[in-house]
Description:
Elements: H1 7-24, H2 28-34, H3 39-47, H4 66-79, H5 81-101, H6 104-115, E1 121-124, E2 140-143, E3 147-158, E4 165-171, E5 181-187, E6 193-198, E7 209-220, H7 231-267, E8 269-270, E9 273-274, H8 279-307, H9 313-337, H10 349-358, H11 366-382
Parallel strand pairs: 1-4
Antiparallel strand pairs: 2-3, 3-7, 4-5, 6-7, 8-9
Helix pairs in contact: 1-4, 4-5, 4-7, 5-6, 5-7, 7-8, 7-9, 7-10, 8-9, 9-10, 9-11
Family: Belongs to the acyl-CoA dehydrogenase family.
Pfam family, one: Acyl-CoA_dh_N
Protein name: Acyl-CoA dehydrogenase
Amino acid sequence: MNFDLTEEHIAVRDAARDFAKTALLPGVIERDNAQSFPAEQIQEMGALGFMGMMVDPKYNGGGMDTISYVLAMEEISKVDASASVSMSVNNSLVCWGLEKYGTEAQKGKYLKPLASGALIGAFCLSEPEAGSDATSQQTEAIDMGDHYLLNGTKNWITNGNSASIYLVIAQTDREKGHKGINCLIVEKEMEGFVVGKKEDKLGIRGSDTHMLSFTDVKVPKENRIGEDGFGFNFAMNTLNGGRIGIAAQALGIASGAFELARNYSLERKTFNKPIAHHQAISFKLADMATEIEAARLLVLKAAYEKDQKRDFSKWSAMAKLMASEVAMKTTVEAVQIHGGYGFVKEYHVERLMRDAKITQIYEGTSEIQRIVISRKILTELDG
Ligand code: CAA
Ligand code: FAD
């Protein structure tokens, strides 16, 4: 067993760290306040190869492994989780799904500009009445022969307005249950597609989360991903990888908050000594560091299992569950260590605390991760 990173991994991590400090940190508080999408920064991330990191270079990707991807995700998320959620959705939901299951024509037309970062993608599964219970889709894609007629509403869609390409999951044959669901590639310009209300959120306020509506949108048959009825399996298989991205995001939020708390605790003095030298504070830091390392090992393990092309669904669910719980706990403690300063915006930790919460909710809540893990471990024991 080898726990060392390769030189390439270290170079990718350092490049992401440098970018986060120089391009994302300036203005991150203002973007959070104004709920403004980091459009320029995302464009730059595309130019640096962060938006299609794992895609084969023949489709404009970086040809990197999942370990590189999680290292970069952690660094970007330490500073700006609104930018990193766009990166995660584009890399591990949209590009991965298209590369794995798309036709050559779909890859040429859609994957190439998405992997280079020229365009941004969105993944549209959730609906007002179907979040965790994802098979209860109400959005319909009626088979009209050479095209589908798409009608319905999607909720909470990340990159909702900034995307150009949308992977939309919809019911074609209700009687077939989850085997009657398809995934269609929808372009923003298609008639009948409207980007609706923007959500006003607790955290990741720079990320543009929108409701989307589809009214008699004609989607050509060649825009269906996979065989007829493959859409739900497509979504589940894709989310397994997406959850590694969100686990890495949560890890980054936790480690960003830890670094700020540690540095602050060495500077801030009370009762004639740095607060780090009060045992109550140093023990908090010890617990934070230990839990972050445990989460990091699980995130890297999930990435490693994916790179080995083994079934990694249990690992990605465990990594997301663990890292998101650690992110929430660590950021709350980071605010506590900052005292009153932690409660004001310029010290960053209150934002990280607000951002941490979403990692326990999207791409499957912590309760859903426990369902995925328990089903897997019970089958393994039975088998
Ligand atoms: N990996 C692969 N396949 C899976 C799977 C997984 N983790 N979980 C379920 N499936 C497959 C099953 O094998 C089954 O397929 P077959 O019949 O071909 O074997 C099919 O999915 C249906 O499975 P279930 O009968 O178990 O389905 P269920 O109705 O009991 O629900 C669930 C399963 C795990 C709860 C699922 O609905 C789920 O994951 N819900 C959460 C949805 C979610 O994560 N949404 C995220 C939206 S995207 C997002 O949030 C992006 C963002 O914020 C940035
Ligand atoms: P519900 O499913 O209604 O769950 C409510 C509560 O009940 C939760 O605590 C849940 O864990 C619990 N619960 C539900 N079922 C069970 C059960 N069987 N056992 C135990 N507990 C259960 N979706 C997309 O498709 N694409 C996106 O890009 C996207 N981006 C998002 C961005 C943001 C900022 C947000 C807030 C959401 C986003 N989502 C996206 C949606 C997200 O994936 C869902 O909100 C999430 O899956 C939960 O669904 P829900 O909100 O309907 O909650």
